[in-house]
Specification:
Structural class: alpha+beta
CATH topology of the largest domain: S-adenosyl-L-methionine-dependent methyltransferases
CATH architecture of the largest domain: Single Sheet
Largest sheet: 7 strands, mixed
Distance between the termini: 28 Å
Radius of gyration: 27 Å
Number of helices: 12
Length: 654
């Protein structure tokens, strides 16, 4: 092993000299999930494994970003997790407001952002509509596609356009053949990776062939002593089969392509000078200070500028001050915390000619969404489509693409609860922060914030209305005196923005029926519409939005940590500081004493543990209770052994 590492080191050093720079350290990420596909209102559980280029737990970065992207490419949720010994874990709750479709999960560290999007972990999941009473055979997708953003510049901000230009240039560069030194280095890395052969995780106590409702299940596993692995036990009858075949061994430990990716990414700049996103050793707030000349498109970075940070809380206020570097860069490093906080940034610096300094933050580095590959949007073989007679028929081919199969069901009489679409809340501080970095001297209006959200998160095209509410009504339809297109400045006491997409709200505020009907509504909607919407032409169907601006309550206005959106300038601004996301705890029902709730227990994931630890004998034992319908279990386990090699669950026992 040591000889292989030395051989790799000298080859990489020779490769670096061949193109005049030192090869930077790399990081690799892999996520293990509890399921291969999901339904709305389920939770997507995952464990992340982060290694360096030598297949050891990373010590470069301490922060991992995991994003959930909508089918159109909008990051509907971004979580930050603390990497400890190369591992972290978390979850995404699939809110029904997201609507169904093919969603993407991508994970990366900030350090990886310097060397190209190809380094990120990415995986596409089918997310089906809500089902009831455990009817998981009813699988239906809302037909949404990811646009070709290269040809839709109206949806992109200037920074994103620059990213696309850089990606196009890099794609052209990657068509060039690799130098011999790079090819030799890749071979050395591949040889080094052969030392990390996967070890098996075996189940010593397989469950019975047919489980009973609420039955207690105990499983014992054996693997390499000291192993840490994530374990998912699911209902085999509800599994969703996709085209994805990756695992921690093939996707993470055997990856040698990082050498070529580093070469292509670093050949056009010097990592010692031009790395624009430094590795994160913890939570930080950073950015730059610049000024604009009389020609406003000319940007000048300002070194030696003082900048102050004030982070108020309900009981205390944290403050700090620093100076910008030679290139105008500044940074504040914070203690660990969870959740979001509002910070105030200010600089007293004034250019001799009277121009005002502008504070810019480096928080908007989320990559531009990539186009899907055809094999990522294939529907599973157990998907059903409707025949002309209204009956369900199983697809004959193993896999079908989304444009070939539209999953429907026979007419069902759902309750009105099914027609209620929940909502996603956007903190106004985050949206004003985003618009301030885009246009520091602009006065933000109500309509601009709503349009920014719809554009930033790539909502499908449709109509929109804006309203201001004293209090958000929850699942009920908002009640306001007047609805109109708002162009005035935002009131100073707005807390959050809520996007409503439910038909009743859209219908109440002036949308024509054909404008907001969605393709997948096929249930019983009597009582609030006269004609079924199935006869509406698809070209007339649009998704509508009602954008609700919700005010602070009188009690919230007294908090010093609330957003103050006015009276600020480019040199005196606010920013939302995101702390770590606190992982949720997987719920474990206990039916030992009482069977209350068992009748309504239709969980597909029966057990999830993000970090099972094997003892000194390599054994680990878990217990849980079955749901009301499962008869056969499906087990998935992946992780890292005590010897540093990958461990993967195998069905058979030696």
């Amino acid at each position: 092993m040591k000889q292989a590492l030395l051989y790799l080191f000298f080859l990489l050093a020779g490769m670096a000299r061949s193109f005049g720079m030192s090869l930077p350290a790399q990081e690799k990420v892999y996520l293990h999930f509890d399921q291969a596909g999901y339904f709305l209102k389920e939770t997507m559980w995952f464990t992340a494994y982060v290694l360096n280029e030598s297949n050891r737990p990373t010590d470069i970065s301490k922060v991992l970003y995991v994003e959930l992207l909508s089918p159109e490419g909008g990051a509907v949720a971004t979580h930050k997790y603390k990497i400890e010994d190369g591992i972290c874990h978390g979850e995404f709750y699939l809110d029904s407001a997201y609507l169904s479709g093919f969603f993407e999960v991508r994970a990366y560290t900030r350090h990886m952002r310097n060397y190209g999007e190809e380094n990120y972990f990415t995986r596409v999941f089918p997310v089906f509509d809500i089902v009831f009473q455990g009817d998981y055979g009813f699988r239906r997708l809302y037909d949404r596609t990811r646009p070709n953003l290269l040809h839709e510049h109206k949806r992109l901000w200037i920074d994103e356009l620059e990213d696309w230009k850089r990606l196009k240039e890099k794609a052209a560069v990657q068509k060039e053949p690799l130098p011999d030194s790079i090819s030799q280095a890749m071979q050395a890395v591949a040889l080094h990776n052969r030392n990390f052969t996967a070890s098996a995780i075996r189940c010593l106590t397989p469950p019975p062939d047919s489980l009973k409702p609420g039955e207690r299940v105990e499983l014992t596993f054996r693997t390499t002593p000291g192993s840490r692995f994530s374990l998912a036990v699911t209902d085999a009858s509800s599994d969703i089969y996709t085209n994805y075949r990756g695992d921690i061994h093939r996707s993470l430990f055997l990856d040698s392509g990082w050498v070529a990716r580093s070469y292509y990414a670093t050949r056009s700049f010097d990592p010692k000078q031009d790395i624009f996103l430094s590795p994160e050793k913890g939570l930080a707030v950073d950015g730059e200070i610049y000024t604009r000349s009389s020609r406003r498109w000319i940007k000048r970075l300002e070194p030696g500028c003082p900048i102050r940070l004030s982070l108020p809380e309900d009981t205390l206020r944290m403050t700090g001050e620093t100076m910008t570097s030679e290139k105008g860069y500044w940074a504040f490093y914070l203690k660990d915390f969870h959740g979001d906080r509002i910070a105030y940034l200010s600089t007293p610096y004034v250019v001799p000619d009277g121009r005002e300094a502008i504070i810019q933050t480096y928080k908007w580095f989320s990559p531009v969404p990539r186009p899907y590959r055809d094999e990522e949007t294939l529907l599973p073989e157990n998907t059903y489509k409707a025949t002309d007679e209204g009956t369900l028929q199983e697809t004959s081919d193993d896999m079908k693409s989304l444009d070939e199969v539209e999953v429907k069901a026979r007419r069902r009489r759902y309750t009105r609860e099914y027609l209620k679409v929940s909502t996603v809340h956007f903190p106004l501080a985050e949206e004003i922060d985003y618009l301030t970095d885009l246009c520091p001297n602009c006065n933000v209006s109500t309509q601009e914030v709503g349009s920014s959200i719809l554009t930033r998160y790539y909502y499908p095209d449709g109509g929109a209305r804006w309203m201001v509410l004293d209090k958000y009504p929850g699942d009920h339809v908002p009640i306001v005196g007047e609805i109109r297109e708002m162009s005035e400045l935002l009131p100073p006491d707005i807390k959050e923005v809520v996007i409503r997409t439910d038909p009743e709200t859209c219908r109440r505020y002036g949308f024509d029926k054909k404008e907001f009907v969605r393709k997948y509504w096929n249930g019983d909607m009597r009582g609030w519409q006269k004609q079924p919407w199935g006869d509406v032409e698809s070209s007339d169907r649009k998704l509508c939005y009602v954008v609700c601006y919700v005010k602070y309550s009188p009690e919230e206005l007294k908090s010093p940590a609330r957003l103050r959106s006015y009276g600020l300038s480019p040199s005196n601004r606010i920013t939302v500081v995101k702390g770590y996301t606190r992982p949720a705890v997987f719920p474990f029902p206990d039916y030992a004493q009482s069977r209350d709730g068992l009748q309504e227990d239709f969980r597909r994931t029966l057990y999830w543990n993000p970090e099972v630890r094997a003892d000194e004998n390599g054994r680990a034992r878990v217990t849980f209770y079955n749901n009301s319908t499962c008869h056969t279990l499906h087990i998935s386990a992946e992780g890292i052994g005590g010897d540093g090699k990958p461990v993967i669950y195998k069905q058979k026992i030696d």
